[in-house]
Amino acid sequence: MSAVPAVVVLNVGSSSVKFRVLGAETALPVLLDGRVTGIGSRPELKLDDQKPRALDESTDQTAAIELVLDQVQSEDRRWRLVAAGHRIVHGGEEFRQPVRLDAGCLERLERYTPLAPLHQRHNLAAVRVLAGREPDLPQVGCFDTAFHADHDAVTHSYALPDQLRAAGIRRYGFHGLSYEWIAQLLAREPGGGPRRVVAAHLGNGASLCAMQRGQSVDTTMGMTALEGLPMGTRCGALDPGAVIYMLRNCGLSVDEAEQVLHDESGLKGLSGGVSEMSALLASDSSRAELAVRYFVLRTAQKIAEMMVSIGGMDCLVFTGGIGEHAGPVRERIVERLAFLPDFDVRVIPADEERMIAAHTLRFVQTAGNRGRAI
Hints:
By secondary structure, the protein is α/β, with parallel strands linked by helices. It has 2 domains: 4-143 and 353-365, 2-Layer Sandwich (Nucleotidyltransferase, domain 5), CATH 3.30.420; 191-342, ATPase, nucleotide binding domain (Nucleotidyltransferase, domain 5). Helices cover 38% and strands 20% of the residues. α1 crosses α3, α6 packs across α14 and α11 (286-310) crosses α13 (327-336).
C-alpha cells in the first residue's frame, strides 16, 4: 500500500509538545495523535489511546521535539509528510495570516519572544529542529494573535503616550486558533449560529473572546499572555503599580519579577502551590477554595465586560481543559451570571491542531506557494 500524504501539526508549549498527523484531504482524518507532557517535572509520552510512557527526567523541550519527530517519521508509518503546521503564539502586528516559515521569517518572529517568553522560543525551536531533518518540507506558521488582528483602535490601544504605542505596546490577544475553531463550528449551524458569543478558553492559560457573527471584537489578553483572567501560574489582571512596587520595595530583579508573574502566580500563588483545577476542586483546604472562588468571580466579571463590547450575549461557550472538564467551575460561573437575560451555554472541545492543519493544507495547496505538490 502506498503511503498517504499527510500534514503534521506541532503545538509546542512551555511544558508540553502536542502533535497530530492528519491526512492531507478536506476531512483531515487523524492518523496519529499524541503529546509529551510534564517537561521540567515528570515528562511522559502518550500516543493515541495508549497508556503514557514515562520519559527520563532530563527530557527538555528539544529532546521532546526530537522524540515526537521520531514517532512521526518512524519507518513503519503509513504516511508521507507533505507539510508541517505550527502554532506560533505571537505574530505581532506583522503576521496576520499563515506564512511559510523560512529563515528570514523566523528571524522576524524572534523579536516577539519577550512578549511570549513561555511559548515563542519553543514554537520556533520546533521549526528549526524539523528543518534540520526535512529541509525541503514546507512549514507553515499559524498565529494565535491573528484572529484578533482587526480589532479597532479603541479595543487594541492602551492609554499611553504616542511614542510607547508606536513602539508596539498595544493589546494583541491570544488563543485565536481556539476561538477561530469555535467560530467555524458555530457558523455551520442554521442561520449562521448565535450572533453574540462570549467564548471562554479556560485552562492553564485562560482568556475570553467576544465574537459577533464569528468575528473577534474584544478579548481579555493584551500585549502579553499575562493580562486578563487568573491562570494556572500566571497572575492575570494586575495593577501595574504592583510590579513597580515589587521592583522597588520587595527586592526583586526584573527577571525575578517576570518569573513570579509567569510561573508562581495565578491559581498556584493563591493556593500555595497547586495550579491544576482538578486538584483544587478535590482539596478541602481553605486556600484551594480561595483559588477556585477567585477564578470563578474574575471569570464571571470578565464575561460581563466582554458582553459590553458586543451588546449582550446569546451564547456562552466553554472550551479548554477547565472549560471542558471542570463542571463545578462552569456551574459556579453561570450562577454568577444568573441575573442576565437567558443565554445558551455550550461546551465545545478545543481543537487548535485541526484548525492549524486546515490552514496549513489550504496554504500549501494555494497557487504560488512553492513546496511539495500534494
